[in-house]
Design a protein that fits this description.
Length: about 270
């Protein structure tokens, strides 16, 4: 069989499987989403190269910079809880979508899934839930360190609001990760994601307060999405640098739209 015939057969199989997906009941589709999310979670939590850095690094960094270097300074520890919380939720979003998707694409798993009756959106939704699950673990570990060792004191309402902002605020970075995962090669994806993730976090003031950085870096941070998410988090504890909630939300929405558009272009490029 020549290549053109192979393409035709593959295309016909792809269309046939998607037609089968349209014939499935809502209950069957919901079960597919549940199973894809379940197995994506199990795969991620059993992968120490992903699970350990994603869940432990933010708490370890916070232990050094938020606790040991700011003993008897609960205000600084509270500030850094918000910024390291932002740092912590961005990591799973970028690596689950970016590095994880690129590796699976390189191994051919995405082609196998595309040939199945499973809706293509299930792959994205499952990774979104996995990213949110890891974000919850990150915030719990940070909270244990903050409330147990750093004398941080927040009301229950502040805890819930801060957690909600950070977990939902990871969405733009999931979309950025999706774009990276569709464009990067499997071999280079983890390194490239790190090159983006770590400088982006530092320049947004997530590791050290922006006031300690040169003025031109302080100005540059306002063009970066992690800065605006951290500012929303810091508003909960009254330590933000200014700007309205609407302003920060609007900028994050704009970045979300840009990342979504770039992901759609990457998908279009992959399918043509």
């Amino acid at each position: 069989m020549n290549n053109s015939n192979t393409i035709v057969v593959s295309s016909n199989a792809h269309l046939s499987n998607h037609s089968a997906a349209h014939r499935m009941t809502a209950k069957q589709i919901a079960k597919l989403f549940y199973l894809e999310t379940k197995f994506e979670w199990l795969k991620s939590i059993r992968n120490p190269a992903f699970a350990l850095p994603a869940t432990l690094f933010p708490a370890i960094f916070y232990l050094f910079f938020g606790v040991l270097m700011n003993q008897h300074n609960p205000q600084a520890a509270t500030f850094l809880l918000c910024t390291y919380g932002t740092f912590g939720v961005i990591g799973p979003a970028l690596f689950s979508f970016g590095a994880g998707l690129a590796v699976e694409r390189g191994q051919g798993w995405l082609d196998i899934k595309d040939a199945s009756p499973m809706p293509a959106s299930a792959q994205v939704v499952s990774r979104l839930f996995v990213s949110m699950g890891f974000s919850i673990i990150v915030l719990v570990t940070l909270g244990l360190v903050a409330f147990g060792l750093a004398d941080v004191s927040l009301s229950l309402g502040q805890v819930w609001l801060l957690s909600g902002i950070l977990i939902i605020g990871g969405l733009p970075f999931c979309l950025l990760g999706l774009t990276l995962g569709l464009l990067l090669k499997a071999e280079s994806a983890p390194a490239v994601v790190n090159v983006i993730y770590l400088p982006l976090s530092f320049l947004s003031g997530l590791w050290v307060p922006l006031s300690l950085l040169p003025s031109y870096l302080q100005s540059f941070a306002q063009f970066l999405p992690p800065y605006h998410l951290s500012q929303l988090a810091l508003k909960v504890v009254g330590q933000d640098a200014g700007g309205s909630v609407v302003q920060h939300l609007l900028i994050l929405v704009i970045f979300s739209i840009l990342f979504f558009a770039s992901a759609m272009l990457a998908i279009k490029k992959k399918t043509t």
